[in-house]
Design brief:
445 residues; alpha/beta; Rossmann fold; pyruvate-formate lyase- activating enzyme; OB fold (Dihydrolipoamide Acetyltransferase, E2P); 3 domains; seven-stranded mixed sheet; six-stranded parallel sheet; 13 helices; 20 strands; 34% helix; globular
């Protein structure tokens, strides 16, 4: 196929990996990936359908592209939104040529070929009734490279019962990738010069459970650092509370290539709210485990995510969450307001808390965390941190330390313009709530 393809990937890094994999398949068939929608024969939008703002963005981008589509240009809606809402998307946005669900992203070549030879202008629906993400029986990397950093998907789908979350409805149950394929991807990333690999899945700590390995993530980390010894940083994202094992803590603490960083979305801290969410409600376990991490890794960076305004969240329950965040002192926190998702267990609870109250609670929690983040950042003033450089201009270089996951955390602002993709030792001179400011260590050899 001699076609020019443009990808627009919306939502999370997991979607970005899927887009890169689809692009690789099309390139193998003779297609060329282009940098703008105007020069493309085929536009593929990898949509997000996780929460309402993400759905609105997906619909908005699809509508914009339909309105701007040139004669002969084809528009394909792929991804999570398409998987969940199917033909409803084509009804709401007339002019879409094809629809491909996220569980069968690997059929993208078939969809493009079918659109080229279709005999009617009716949309092509490729939404097979698949129970889970398709088995990848092709030699295809499941990575997305961004400069000297990369995402590596180790699993897809989710088997957790969270009452508020639509991901299992969209993705299906958790499916771990075979370890040999993950290790091959890591070697390829190493050979391409990548210096940081971020391991992603809906739940990284569930890795291997479906393969019969209950401590699969710890074993995978050990295998990864052996397979790709030149990758300086391996980072774990999206850990599930209750599944951070002693062995996993030990591997992180004693493996220099694995950065001491844990992203564990806890969602709340009041046991009653957590039970209604169908989340682990043993807050004592959380306290014990976080304390265990800090004993093993005093320098560990802790990130979490919380939902405020869940149905029947009382002011007292919210204050419990505030006290918990104040006590734990996370390095980073994300806060979302609850919105009911169609088809989830929480849909039946309605949305009884007003938008104003939810937003006020979100602001209150973020104000608290902003002060905590500032204090945590200030504790690094005078220290030296290894920083991966990612951007440069106007006399400043932007980078990230081990404490900063790409796209979601802060930056280190370095005085002067330095080469990109380098690991620099930076002396921290001052701190802001989200970012650090420093200079390259003059004593560095």
């Amino acid at each position: 196929m001699n076609l020019r393809i443009y990808f627009l990937s919306l939502g999370c890094a997991k979607n970005t990996v899927d887009s890169e994999s689809m692009a690789a398949m099309l390139v193998r068939e003779g297609c060329r990936i282009v940098a703008s929608e105007e020069e493309a024969d085929v536009i593929i939008v990898n949509t997000c359908g996780f929460i309402e703002p993400a759905r609105e963005e997906s619909f908005s981008e699809l509508q914009r592209l339909v309105e701007q589509k040139s004669p002969g240009q084809m528009l394909i809606a792929a991804g999570c939104l398409t998987q969940r809402y199917g033909e409803e998307i084509a009804r709401q946005v007339p002019g879409i040529d094809g629809l491909l669900g996220t569980r069968r992203w690997m059929d993208i070549v078939h969809v493009v070929e079918s659109l080229r030879t279709r005999e009617t202008p009716q949309p092509l629906y490729h939404l097979p009734d698949a129970d889970e993400i398709g088995d990848e029986d092709i030699d295809l990397p499941r990575t997305a490279i961004q400069g000297a950093s990369a995402y590596l998907k180790i699993a897809d789908g989710c088997s957790r019962p969270c009452a508020f979350c639509a991901i299992p409805l969209i993705k299906g149950p958790a499916v771990s990738r075979p370890p040999e394929r993950i290790l091959a991807d890591a070697r390829r990333l190493q050979d391409s010069g990548v210096r940081e690999v971020n391991l992603i899945a809906q739940d990284t700590t569930a890795y291997g459970h479906d393969l019969g390995n209950k401590d699969g993530l710890a074993q995978l980390l050990e295998d990864l650092v052996e397979a790709a010894p030149q990758v300086e940083w391996f980072r774990i994202l999206y850990a599930y509370p209750g599944c951070v094992t002693d062995r996993l803590i030990d591997v992180i603490a004693n493996t220099p290539q694995v950065v001491p960083y844990i992203d564990m979305p806890l969602q709340h801290a009041h046991p009653d709210v957590l039970r209604r969410m169908r989340r682990p409600a043993n807050i004592e376990w959380v306290h014990r485990t976080l304390a265990k991490m800090r004993r093993a890794m005093p320098e560990v960076a802790l990130r979490s995510t919380f939902i405020v305004g869940y149905p029947n969240e009382t002011e007292q329950a919210f204050e419990t969450l505030m006290e918990f965040v104040s006590d734990v002192c996370f390095d980073r926190v994300g806060v979302f307001t609850f919105s009911p998702e169609v088809g989830t267990e929480s849909e039946s609870l309605g949305d009884p808390i007003s938008a104003e109250v939810k937003e006020e609670r979100r602001h209150r929690l973020m104000r608290l965390q902003q002060q905590i983040s500032l204090e945590r950042n200030q504790s690094f003033v005078g220290d030296r941190l290894l920083v991966l450089t990612e951007g440069v201009g106007d006399g400043i270089t932007l980078g990230r330390s081990y404490r900063d996951a790409p796209e979601i955390d802060g930056l280190v602002l370095i005085d002067g313009e330095h080469p990109l993709g380098e690991m620099l030792t930076v002396k921290i001179d001052s701190a802001m709530p989200y970012d650090l400011i420093g200079t390259v260590d003059s004593t560095e050899d």
